[in-house]
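It is worth pausing here to work through a concrete case rather than discussing structure prediction in the abstract. The textbook approach is simple: state the sequence, then state the predicted structure, then interpret. We follow exactly that order.
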Amino acid sequence: MTSPQPQATQAFGQNVQYLPRISIDTFLVSENANEAMHVVADDRRLSKTKVAFQGNGVSKAAEHYATNKTPNLIILEADVEREAMFGHLNRLASQCPQNTNVIVIGPFNDISTYRTLMEQGVDDYLVSPVSDKELLSSISKIYSEKKKQKLGRISAFYGTRGGSGSSTIAHNVASILSQDSTSNIMLIDVDYPFGTAAINLNIDNDHGAEEMLSNQNNIDEGFLDRISIRYSKNLRVIGAGASFDQVFSVGKQFVTDIVDAIHASACHAIIDLPTTWSEREAQFLKAADDIILTATPDLSSMKNTKQLVEHCVRTRPNDPLPLLVLNQVGMPKRPEINRQDFAAAVRLNPSVTVGFDANIFGKAANNGRTIYETAPKSATSKAMADIANLLTRHRSDSMSTKAPRPLSLWGRLIKRIQ
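Step two, the predicted structure:
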């Protein structure tokens, strides 16, 4: 059973791409612009960028770069009248390389100002007051159009309480997604040493996560491919085998390197997260393109779901809300919170509801087979397909094409002079 998300801004963020390793200098004077830029600087898609807040405004930028190295992108706010702003931009051009990109923020809301700035080669002009979404979208457009390679996608599955069934759903969704002939799916179980991906899919070698933890300084695209096991033509699995002989400490760079490797591989990674809370889980949830929360219709799960949704709103303000899966609905002899009350309490509608079916889930788990293989025509199998379809829709939305950009500010100015 599927239902649309109620929030109107849910689609924002699907077309915003990860930025490459660039430097950004900002010359902002208003409280509004500074606050918006601080939100943008903390966005997951700017994890590789270096943002410097220089203060002042467009009038001080040329003076600054007379003695300082120029960044890849300069974001300026007008602190002078219109004609003076144009003059400062012309002087700034003489201090910067041709490939420097520029975004200007100003109060001038007229077509003449916009045309003049575009003629000067400014990449974008935003009328103040500006929102963090406008700024993020503007920056993303510049670099997503320059960076043509396809990036990998990350869907993180997280249970809102132990035993919610998040892992089982993640494994089945990965299998369904891999049935698309154009897909390149990698299932990564990071619940070491208690992960069940390998046993649920009847895979013998399940020590991939242990190899990752033992080689944290060597994680890249090729490493993930080497330690993964091919389950089917389009699905590779990194299991989390049960070995209690070693205890690993996980550094912040561990998650960053996995995320970078997935992006470079152009695969769609399904991350099966344990229902624990540490920097590792927080990092994966912040870095993910999609978050799938699996909840059960009881009070403890509802409380945790509400807190997790609020956490996602705070840490991912420019991303869609998580997809909520309400699992184990209709368990015999168990009092439960109905769907409508659950949604009202957590302020998020369940995207998919999965009914309790001990026979199908038990048979699939004991035989090391997926739900689709065990009962392809069941309501449970359809629910798994609904989740996969939602993720496929998100992936398609993020691949929209865009028109070519004009020359940069400095390139167009030099062309005019010549």
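Step three, interpretation. Confidence is low (pLDDT under 50) at residues 1-12, 399-418. The chain has 17 helices and 13 strands.
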